[in-house]
Model the fold of this input.
Amino acid sequence: MAEREWILLNPGPANTSPSVREALVMPDLCHREPECFEMMRRCRDGVVRLAGAGSDWAAVLFTGSGTAAVEATICAAVPASRTLLVIDNGVYGDRMLKIARAHGIDVVTVQCDIFTPVRPADVEAALIAHPEASHVAVVHHETTTGLLNPVAEIARVAERHGRRLVVDAMSSLFGEALDVTQDGIDFVTASANKCLQGIPGVSFVLARRRALDALAGRAPRSVYLDLHGHYVSQERDNTPFTPAVQVLHAMERALAELADEGLARRIARYADNARVLRAGMARLGFEALGTPAGRSNILTTFRLPPGIGYDALHDAMKRRGYIIYAGQGDIRTYAFRVSNMGTLTPKDMNGVVAAFEEAIADLR
Ligand SMILES: Cc1ncc(COP(=O)(O)O)c(C=O)c1O
Done:
């Protein structure tokens, strides 16, 4: 199998290894046979173990993109009479807000600029002002711009005020340091196809068992995305619906590859990738947006060079085998994103910089 056709600089689905892709063509398997349930069990246990959590945590798998895990969590976590405090500094914070509203959940927000990590003091003030808020929902890595929210500090604030945290770590789990077991955190959502380096189609909720058990007996707000229903079923080595069997095969392989590489080394590789990219782009005159302190090691937003539009730059990079990613909403008019997750290495990132140099020369 060819190593790669494109170098994917979009923040997931990311480049995968040939053996992850080959795992998709395992022999056919009935999803109600023990072999499938054993595979699901290995995937669930692998997520818990590699995230550094213990037996008081469980992973619940969903067939669906990352939003499935986020929606399942939000519509399960907040009791009927309570409110969700959503930290909104990007598209994915905003999405959590929309999900809550779609399910009739009362929401309050702490909003800030898309390049500004939320201030824990503002979260604290909101929790004091809103005693009805039972949970805080925060995106760890806002993929809108590549900013990191200070999850550890927010968890401390939530814990101090007796509230629980829901963390969307979709584009950061296994790519940035994150102590999911920290007091205050109950639910963490992510998917197979980002820093885990698997295939799209499966997402998961990593949760404290105590928080999952507390959902028993509550009327679910969703049938397909009933977190407690999936948890109970998967704990019994069963599944309420048909899972994406082949994607799970690939996820199991991706988990094995993460164990082989080691979490600390993967995080360090991504950080090296980001360093090479940012230094190279700075040499070419590209401005990275946002403050260095608030930036992840996974994605960088660069200002478009004067006189060059996103589409022209995208096409010039694509001709060279590189897929860059547009900014969301009006960001598209002045900036673009480059992610460095997946199987990419610092050597690949040198190639990315060289391709930008050529592309710019072409377009000027
Ligand atoms: C932080 C974050 N949350 C949620 C999602 C939604 O994931 P999906 O598009 O897989 O539903 C993404 C996707 O990029 C994301 O980056």
Notes: The two ends are 37 Å apart (CA to CA). The chain has a mean pLDDT of 97.
